[in-house]
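Input/output pair, single chain:
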Amino acid sequence: MMTSDAPDTVHVDTSPSDHIQSGAVPATPTASSTLPYSWSGFTQYAWKVRWEFLLSLVFLLLAFGQKLFSNTFSIDTEAIIQAQKNLYRSWIQLSRFGFVWLKKIAGTYWYNNALSGFLTVILFAATVFLWGYVFYALSEKKEKWHIAFFVIPLFVSPIMAEQLGFLLQSPSVCVGMMLVALAVMTYVNAASVRVHRESHRIRVTLAYHLLAILLLAAAFSLYTAQISLFISAVGMVYVYKFFSSSSSTRKSEHSFTSFILIPAALSICGYIIYSLLNRLALYVYHTSTDAYVNDQVRWGKDSLYHIIVTILRHARTVYFSQRIYYSLAFTVLGILLLLILGIRFLCRRTPFSAVLIMAAVFASPLIMSVLLGMVPTVRTEFVYPYVFSFIFLLLHELLSVNSFLSFKWSQLLAWLVLLAVCFGQGQISNRIFYTESVIYQQDVLLASQLATRIGEVTGMEHPSEPVVYIGRHIPRGNADTYKSTDLDLIGRSIMDITFSTTHGDWVKNHFMAAQGYSFRMPSRAQESMAEQESLSMPRWPAEGSVQKINGVIIVKF
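Output:
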């Protein structure tokens, strides 16, 4: 607990295995235990917040309701449907061996798009619920604690819509986020162990730390970007636990060592174990790391000036809400929170360390940009919605005890801001998935038209010649859909996302096959020939935009 009058020593005859059951780590401290997390504490939390959480699910349905029973999909999903073995092998090459192993363990190795959409929504709700417990157990104001202020901003986040819109991996990403939450609970429990015998305390603490390392290694194997979530969560936990603490409490709990330095060391150890397991996976599957992984890191490849300018420009995009995925409310509320904490510091009610670390948390959405030295894909920036939720949660708690308004009016203001901001964010997420649905239908229609034209050119329903697609096709959507330039990947046409002729052929041919129109893949030499021949061809849908030349079917967009 955060109270300074907690007993210095309480006999706890326990071990990590006694306190981590059924997927949650132990909990609310009692007279006989100083551990913040326990199974009994989790059940108490679940019972207390059950109705508010159920009402909050309305916002999950606002943002993700379409994915519950939808069968639409975006880029890469066509490959797992038609070239499952190749895609799983590419995940090994991308250092995501945990994805492959988890799918085998869970019995979802054979991909089912409808099932994946359903599991994504259910697991996302469970993930956010578990993360809510991370902060509930640390709160000194449990009687005034409201889960809605944490879960609703996460449910409606457009960044989470982008991340979890990749249905081929989204259930595994949710599992990874839950593993990170458990790792956070575990290291906090380790810092809270109080026993009479020092030797026993060391053994229990080390056991907790080892468990945290293993949880982190597993999370990184599912999605390496989870490391950014853990880093940010360490800062959020520190701020939430110590923002109103006394110096004696921080000293007795070794706050900086136990809650900053040790978690940093645990993440490094977890990453080392993950790296060793990754090497083993590459050896077992007789493959090597894809060049794409190393190309993502620009440090040492681009000039330092270029990298710094890139990061600063991305920071401007994030904090000034220059894309649909970001909200100006994040910046305004984050600055307001820092100002309140700063005033509390001047009044000697909040330690400077909490103010400083909260500033770092506020900047943590840029972690991936800093680590890579470039602008990351939006789906890897899921730290942003977690920080947004934390800002809402902490602001609400501060308003509950410190406000120039009465308690009733401060609560009303907090709820109005939460609902207004999150309804707007939910509309954006909903529109992203609506756009995906409309564009997907247009892609399916285009696939049918292409198959018909190819049949007319070759005189066969299933020709033996390979098909090469030159260029890209951008559907028009409708007046209510986002434009392709507004979006990152989710919601864009599969026929639009083309980085090269080879990449385009891989994506388009597999999408055609997913609709029942299977054609042979071309060789690189055939693609080079098609690129030259297409120079004199008209663009789709003009007559002559689909031709058979030198035994290759060429489609020019």
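Residues 394 and 440 are 40 Å apart (CA to CA). The radius of gyration is 26 Å.
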